[in-house]
Inverse folding.
């Protein structure tokens, strides 16, 4: 059986850094590293390396060594080439001016936003920011290290999908939410909650609107029952 050759070194700017995902008994996170030539996704899943997620910084340059080629969604139409950290992988900061971000047109619909939490729907993980933008975290809350937000929190949302008409930011696997004013624990996902149902059935973001609309219609109907 041939031995798979490692990528000895990869250097570039971290353009994306996910929360830590909990998948069955395994935890992992993703790093998107951009250079002038391309954008590369790195998967970190070794327990001893999960701590890197809290010390790496988006927008800074790093060098990664001894990475193994791999694939996500292998043998499906959504197959993605990635690099996977090995037991020999090291990460070190490098000079910022050595690299430029790759131009990736497929990511132009993702934006970052800094604001104040002005409303909270903890059941559906919907939050108001600056009384003008809605933030939907259902896709990552309860299954990642995404923090539980509270009224008055100051947050930075990295790489969320922006819907101008609805003025909504919707989180995806690439999204990261940083709290600026306090330390917070990860959002919980109770097995009897609507959030757990959304994850279990793999419902799309539009299901949030359906759930909220149905909940209101039922609430309005209750007083009129005879």
């Amino acid at each position: 059986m041939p031995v798979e050759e490692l990528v000895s070194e990869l250097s570039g700017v971290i353009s994306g850094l996910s929360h830590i995902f909990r998948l069955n008994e395994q935890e992992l996170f993703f790093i998107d590293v951009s250079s002038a030539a391309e954008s590369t996704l790195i998967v970190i899943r070794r327990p001893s390396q999960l701590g890197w997620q809290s010390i790496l910084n988006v927008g800074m340059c790093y060098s990664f060594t001894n990475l193994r080629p791999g694939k996500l969604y292998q043998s499906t139409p959504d197959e993605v080439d990635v690099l996977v950290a090995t037991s020999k992988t090291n990460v070190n900061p490098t000079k910022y001016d050595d690299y430029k971000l790759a131009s990736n047109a497929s990511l132009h619909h993702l934006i970052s936003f800094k604001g104040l939490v002005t409303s909270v729907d903890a059941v559906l993980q919907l939050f108001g920011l600056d009384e003008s933008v809605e933030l939907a975290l259902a896709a990552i809350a309860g299954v990642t290290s995404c923090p539980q937000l509270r009224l008055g929190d100051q947050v930075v949302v990295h790489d969320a999908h922006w819907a101008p008409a609805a003025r909504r930011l919707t989180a995806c696997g690439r999204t990261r939410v940083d709290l600026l004013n306090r330390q917070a624990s990860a959002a919980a996902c109770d097995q009897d909650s609507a959030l757990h149902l959304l994850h279990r059935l793999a419902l799309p973001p539009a299901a949030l609107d359906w759930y909220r609309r149905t909940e209101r219609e039922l609430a309005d109907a209750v007083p009129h029952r005879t």
Observations:
- Confidence is low (pLDDT under 50) at residues 98-106.
- The CA atoms of residues 86 and 116 lie 39 Å apart.
- The two ends are 74 Å apart (CA to CA).
- The first helix runs from residue 194 to 200.
